[in-house]
Amino acid sequence: MARPYIEFVQCQNIDWQVQADGTRVKRLNFDPADGAETCIVRYPAGFIREDMGPEDRAEEYFVLDGTIVIDEKARAYHAYGFIPRGESAGIRASEQGATLLIFRYGRDDPNSISGVSEAITVDPLSVPWDMSASDPQIAHLRLARKVMRLGPNDSSRTFLLLGLPHGVPPADAMPAETHDHFEEMLMLQGEMWTPEGLIRPGAYFYRPPGIVHGPHVSQAGFFQIMRAGANKVRTEWSAPKPLPIGAPYAPAIPEGTPESWTRPWDGPEAF
User: Which residues form the ChrR-like cupin domain (predicted)?
Assistant: First the structure.
């Protein structure tokens, strides 16, 4: 099996599942064949979990809110880390509670095992933005990046991506994209128009290789965390398509997904 194509779901529409250890989990994507998954985990105040020994899957984590102790160090707002398969994360504890985005790699992934990949931690707040020019086809988004991790053997890239407000080209059409590797994303702030509707904070997508997507424009700007199945995003461009501003919500959701996933989401008014 392979991980399913999802584009897109607002995580606010996914129910929390209570776990035996007291955590609550929203599973966004899962491959039952090898255990690869993406989920949001909420750790309650006072949570303590003893060292469980070597991990059977590599794990990336990104702190969405709160503070949590991992590997004997407190990880706070937007802290990032990678733990290879075969190594331990040590005791995990949170005095006040915390919410983490977690990417778990497949059990058979050869590039995420200890000895091939190294454990790392990153404080993104101390990493400068890379504002070098992007592909001219998406120059209107005025992108900046912070790379958290590059996997060995051109296997993956995890990065923060920022687009400035007023990211709309002067034309009324632009090309769509296709990649020969997967992409997945969680929107942290802002919004973006896509042919599937308006992506807002909490939106998640997972695209297997070969999925045509876009064009994308952003009137308000955006901030997101992304993963790609290569160290550098490789793109093929289609013929121009109309800009999707005003497109209705039309998600691509796997068969059997709860109906709640397909609800349009209207967050609280800003003013």
Answer: 8-102, 143-227
Peptide bond connecting 195 to the previous residue in cis, omega within 30 degrees of 0: no
Give the tens place of pLDDT for each residue, 154-191. 999 999 999 999 999 999 999 999 999 999 999 999 99
Q: Are 243 and 186 in contact (CB under 8 A)?
A: no
If you count them, how many residues does the chain have? 271
DSSP helix/strand/coil, 228: strand
**Level-2 CATH architecture, domain 136-262:** Sandwich (2.60)
Name the segment(s) of the chain with CATH classification 2.60.120.10. Answer: 34-126, 136-262
pLDDT tens-digit readout, 198-250: 999 999 999 999 999 999 999 999 999 999 999 998 999 999 999 999 999 99
The architecture (CATH level 2) of 34-126 comes to: Sandwich (2.60)
Q: Which of 188, 166, 185, 192 is nearest to 233 (CA)?
A: 185
Q: What is the largest CA-CA distance in the chain?
A: 56
Q: Any idea which residue has 């991992």 for tokens?
A: 70
The neighbouring-strand residues paired with 183 are: 207, 228
190 Rama class: left (phi>0) / alpha (psi -120 to 50) / beta: left
